[in-house]
Amino acid sequence: MTTRFFGDTALLTGRSLRHITRSPDTIITTAVMPIAFMLLFVYVFGGAIQTGSGQYVNYLLPGILLITIASGISYTAYRLFLDVQGGIFERFQSMPIARSSLLWARVLTSLVANVISLVVVVLVALLMGFRSGAGVLSWLAVAGILSLFTLALTWLAVIPGLTAKSVDGASAFSYPLIFLPFISSAFVTTETMPGPVRAFAENQPVTSIVNTIRDLYTRQPVGTDIGIALAWCLGLLAVAYAVAIGIYHRKIS
Amino acid sequence: MTTGQVRGPAIQVRALERSYGELHVLRGVDFEVARGSIFALLGSNGAGKTTVVRILATLLKADAGTVTVAGFDVARQAANVRESISLTGQFAAVDEVLTGRENLVLMARLRRVKDAGHVADDLLARFQLTDAARRRVATYSGGMRRRLDIAMSLIGNPPVIFLDEPTTGLDPRGRIEVWNCVKELTVRGTTVLLTTQYLDEAEQLADRIAILHEGRIIAGGTLAELKQLLPPAKVEYVEKQPTLEDVFLAVVGANSQDADPDAGDRSVGNNK
Question: Could you read off the pLDDT of B10-20 as tens digits, one per residue?
């Protein structure tokens, strides 16, 4: 049964990866908004924002990367919704294949698509003057945290993908996720925020993840942030996965 | 044919019940489908036809009753049932981003069929899709999609095929294309359960017909048996007028098999 699971997941992942290679515009579209934010904040607002020494683009990039992921996973929800809506989901479910392979194929495809978008955004940041002295291990750690965050948000995206009643509903859930970095340390330091806002900003997941990534590529010690960041990612992943699988089993039985 | 089958009808449904909340959709449905026959489940919209098909295809659980497909119980031996069936749902469930051939190859690989490419090419030829094989399905006409959809269902030669409203939304020529495909299936010994709301479709295709109404089968049998439910036919003499369908097909060319976007123009030219 497990060989069947891996074989079927590989076949179906090949299928959904073709959706991406045949419409590269979907990756462009998901990368456009974070790049637009980056241009806006570096060249319009950036001059007036005090974040300490160094280039503002260096300060900004971690938050932009999280926005890229939040915008990327709405595509996962959208494609999954189309599978359910179009009947191909039922066709696969009525076939002798490993039944969870359809979800895993979408999740793996989401990881690949987000990696491509993230690379595009980092390349644009480099053109805008982003520089880092981080070594290979630090970059691997950044990649690991971003992958974990992508995985957690992807499983979260599976929930609306399976339950939405319309295309708009399937992708609308990502809007709050895209704006969460604005109320965090991603764009400005939290010290200037009024009490309750600051309290929220400092205790929501984005701040710890952003601080960790920023410390990693500015070669600062990561401190306690990395533990909090990993706890948020793993906790969100566990809850989103459990809920998504629960909905899936109710849907197919 | 698939192993593990026992003798007996291909599909057996006994006292099948299913509700959605307060709505009692199926209130005790009974029918049997003989091996190698075409059985039409006829009913108006919302009669519960799709609910029956979804239960038979292991996509939905019944509230009560027993259902066996190819000798396997749908509740207890769902995996065996899935090995024995193919479902063609109400909307052509094809991947629009992939080409027609890629759709078939994907199905063949998922069904662990040897030589997937060869199987795909054979089916493309059989369903007159060879010319369109390397085009994305998004560019196909409704009739072509349905043909591809049915071709995908044949991969691995499942002994039982469910066709849920296979011609809904098709133009008259597309319907005839699909009907020809379905007729060909039984030549190969496949059992077909077809749902439709079109009476002429059931007349054209089915060996036996059952009428599903308000959650029960209210009449069933061969077309001749069903006709006997009514008083004997009176003999009347009427002028045989061509139907609009006859006219339409004569004008656009009923022989033209390929529903290519420009095939229509060509066949009109042929008829002049």
Answer: 999 998 999 98
User: In the prediction, which pLDDT does A1 show?
Assistant: 56
| CB contact set of A243 (below 8 Å; sequence gap of 6+) | A159
- Answer yes or no: do A91 and B59 touch at CB < 8 A: no
> CB of B129 within 8 A of CB of B141?
no
- How many other β-carbons are positioned within 10 Å of the β-carbon of residue A175? 12
pLDDT at A238: 95
Q: Which residues of B touch A23 (CB under 8 A)?
A: 97
DSSP reduced 3-state for B114: coil
Residue B195 neighbours by CB under 8 Å, 6+ apart:
B40, B41, B42, B43, B49, B50, B52, B53, B163, B164, B165
Element (H, E) at B13: strand B11-20
* Cα angle: A20, vertex A24, A28; to 5 degrees: 120
Predicted confidence at residue A152, as pLDDT, reads: 94
Q: Which residues of A touch B93 (CB under 8 A)?
A: 86-88, 90-91
Residue type (1 letter), B22:
E
Q: Does A25 touch chain B (CB under 8 A)?
A: no
For B57-78, how does the pLDDT look when each residue is reduced to its tens digit (9 = 90+)? 998 888 999 999 999 999 899 8
Give the mean pLDDT of chain B. Answer: 83
Structure tokens that stand for B239 in this block: 């002028």
* CB-count exposure of residue A174 (10 Å: 0-12, 13-18, 19+): buried
Interface test with A, best of B50, B80, B97, B152 (most A CBs within 10 A): B97
CA-to-CA separations, B223 to B36, B40, B226, B227, in angstroms, rounded: 17, 11, 5, 6
So what's the architecture of B11-234 in CATH?
3-Layer(aba) Sandwich (3.40)
pTM score, whole prediction = 0.82
Inter-chain CB proximity B59 and A11 less than 8 Å? no
d(CA A95, CA A97): 6
Contacts of B16-22 with C-beta under 8 Å, sequence gap 24+, read: B16/B52, B16/B55, B16/B62, B16/B64, B16/B65, B16/B66, B16/B67, B17/B62, B17/B63, B17/B64, B17/B65, B18/B48, B18/B51, B18/B55, B18/B60, B18/B62, B18/B63, B19/B63
> To the nearest whole percent, how much of chain B has pLDDT over 90?
32
In the predicted model, residues of chain A with pLDDT beneath 50 are none
Check: CB of residue B94 under 8 Å from CB of residue B152: yes
Tokens of A5: 């699971």
pLDDT, tens digit, 9 for 90 and up, residues B197-253: 888 888 888 999 998 888 888 888 888 888 777 777 667 777 778 888 888 777 777
Cβ contacts of B127 within 8 Å, gap of 6 or more: B147, B148, B150, B151, B181
